[in-house]
């Protein structure tokens, strides 16, 4: 009976250990984000219309800010969530609808950061936003 218990415990420890290694490799570095921006400033002009987006400095590899509607914004870290150690930076494609990882080919929808295709296996890292016209606050 003790050999069986030892075998079960060993299996559990090895399984958890390998799971931790995989999870750690796919974990975007936790970076404090606390950005306040006036969307009426010239560098944020593209956010004046619904569907507009801009890149801003912050997060792990930069942030994509997208205007969902008149009062709601989304913000995603540009650090690709696949093979995190490669530090690939996602970018918005020419159609202004898709965000793509040039390293893995993974793609996400800009409206909510959800995965469309590719090996990434998860949505983009998102940040919380609040908006009190004209001030947008991005934070975690």
What's this, in brief?
By secondary structure, this protein is α+β, with helices and mostly antiparallel strands.
Give structural notes:
By secondary structure, the protein is α+β, with helices and mostly antiparallel strands. It has one domain (29-139): Rieske [2Fe-2S] iron-sulphur domain (Rieske Iron-sulfur Protein), CATH 2.102.10. It contains 1 helix and 10 strands. Strands 1-10-9-4-3-2 form a 6-stranded antiparallel beta sheet, with no helix packed on it.
Total tally of structural domains = 1
Name of the CATH architecture: 3-layer Sandwich
Low-confidence stretches: 17-24
Report the count of strand segments: 10
Largest sheet: 6 strands, antiparallel
Topology:
Blueprint: H1 2-25, E1 34-38, E2 53-56, E3 63-67, E4 73-77, E5 91-92, E6 98-100, E7 107-109, E8 115-117, E9 126-132, E10 135-139
Antiparallel strand pairs: 1-10, 2-3, 3-4, 4-9, 5-6, 6-7, 7-8, 9-10
List keywords for this structure.
140 residues; alpha+beta; Rieske Iron-sulfur Protein; six-stranded antiparallel β-sheet; 1 helix; globular
């Amino acid at each position: 009976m003790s050999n069986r218990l030892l075998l079960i415990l060993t299996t559990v420890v090895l399984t958890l250990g390998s799971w931790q290694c995989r999870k750690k490799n796919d974990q975007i570095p936790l970076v404090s984000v606390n950005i306040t921006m006036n969307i009426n400033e010239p560098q944020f002009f593209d956010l004046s219309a619904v569907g507009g987006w801009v890149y801003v400095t912050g997060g792990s590899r930069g942030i994509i800010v997208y205007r969902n509607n008149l009062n709601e914004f989304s913000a995603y870290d540009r650090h690709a969530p696949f093979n995190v150690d490669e530090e690939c930076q996602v970018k918005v494609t020419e159609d202004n609808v898709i965000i793509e990882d040039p390293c893995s080919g993974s793609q996400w929808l800009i409206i909510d950061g959800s995965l469309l295709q590719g090996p990434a296996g998860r949505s983009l890292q998102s940040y919380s936003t609040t908006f009190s016209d004209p001030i947008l606050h991005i934070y975690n």
